[in-house]
Amino acid sequence: MGTFKIEGGKSLKGEITPQGAKNEALQILCAVLLTPEKVTIKNIPDIIDVNKLITLLGNLGVKIRKIGHGAYTFQADEVNVGYLETEAFKKEGGSLRGSIMIVGPLLARFGKGYIPKPGGDKIGRRRLDTHFEGFINLGAKFRYVREEHFYGVETKSRLKGTYMLLDEASVTGTANIVMAAVLAEGTTTIYNAACEPYLQQLCKMLNAMGAKISGVGSNMLHIEGVESLKGCEHHILPDMIEIGSWIGLAAMTRSEITIKNVSWENLGQIPAVFAKLGITIERKNDDIFIPAHTEGYQIKTDIDGSILTIADAPWPGFTPDLLSIILVVATQAKGEVLIHQKMFESRLFFVDKLIDMGAKIILCDPHRAIVIGHNFQSQLKATTMTSPDIRAGISLLIAALSAKGSSTIQNIEQIDRGYERIDERLREIGANIVRV
Question: Please, are residues 127 and 53 in contact by the beta-carbon 8 Å criterion?
């Protein structure tokens, strides 16, 4: 396993450009399976999870050509559906949670889609029911081999459009069902659909390929099925989670940083939530400028003076992927905040590492933590720690960059799963970080 060695306590300065969005890329890449024509995708992040999915597509027979940095063409005109039932696929697909989204396109186009129980972050139970209930509603038959944790859906005829009310506004579940429904016969209505910008991007791409999806951006999608889809060109949005990570880094290290080309209209509540922690965020065209917070930053209270609560919620609520960052940033704020992680029961379990570093955090239960900020009166202490998942990993890295002394972060492959060349990009703005 790789390791980062970090010399913290240093102020940074410069410009940083966010990578393409990981969560969008995983959806968009699966959509290339819906057409035999060539699809060009740009701004693909060079990260472990995305690269694993590209490899999986190649093993399925998709013709892949790299045409520039982050730019590829894909042509799924000779897909080997038989690969889905091989031992190699069971091992490969099980190592990547995003692989679940190949099922919808394969089911729609080839009448079958299989997936081993997907891997990914160890952040608690993540249901697949929404995906498969959606496929069943469209007319597919469900298969599950319990001994092998192997899931499948099949249909001998074209899927049939229908009305469905999702039991949860699952982003990947909505994406999977949408990709299945675009080639179904008739009209599909999906209520309680996820409406994150990345799901909107998928719908826009599918419409460019000839799909007929309306209601994009709302929680009710109407999909009129078509016989086939054509190729297209698509550009992936900047990663909002990485943008939030850089905001947190600038605040914690009291650094002057400009985040370039952030697609402000797709950031939702992210700037407002960081502002509640007292962080100054200036909009300059499509960039974010964070001044050096030399005097610190103060957490705001609710209108009635009670302690601020920051909680995650489905879009347009605050994304759960940034709660770990918010928690770390709050450790050096002036004031107190309650962090409520509603969606995953294990995502706050990294706080013991921050407590070891000197942070004042009370873990109330698996979902809630109270943070009492130091107001930079006491620096965090350097330590040795292990990255348990992507978002906790980047949070610990931010803590280490603000801490006094030399820190070590192990299992950095978790960070590499979601952040492209992060050590190189941090060094470009003055960070003292080395990959071992």
Answer: no
**Do the beta carbons of residue 176 and residue 129 sit within 8 Å?**
no
Closest by CA to 169, choosing from 201, 197, 190, 192, is 192
Is residue 356 flagged as an active site residue? no
Inter-helix orientation angle 22-31/197-208, to 10°: 30
Encode pLDDT of 304-332 as tens digits. Answer: 999 999 999 999 999 999 999 999 999 99
Task: Give the Cα separation of 96 and 99 in Å (integer).
Answer: 6
Q: What is the Cα–Cα distance from 250 to 292, expressed in whole angstroms?
A: 7
CA distance 47 to 226: 34
Q: Tokens standing for 210?
A: 């000839």
Contact call for residues 111 and 156 (beta carbons, < 8 A): yes
Query: How many of the other CB atoms lie within 10 Å of CB of 97?
Result: 18
**Residue 152: strand, helix, or coil:** strand
Given 49, 121, 312, 423, the catalytic residue: 121
Residues counted in the chain: 436
Kindly compute the dihedral angle of the four CA atoms of residues 157, 199, 28, 234, in this order, to the nearest 10 degrees: 120
340: helix, strand or coil: strand
Rounded to two decimals, what is the model's pTM?
A: 0.92
Closest CA to 182 of 113, 141, 230, 219: 230
What is the rounded distance in angstroms from the CA atom of residue 376 to the CA atom of residue 334?
Answer: 8
Category of 423 on φ-ψ map: left (φ > 0), alpha (ψ -120 to 50) or beta: alpha
Structure confidence by residue, pLDDT tens digits, 403-412: 999 999 999 9
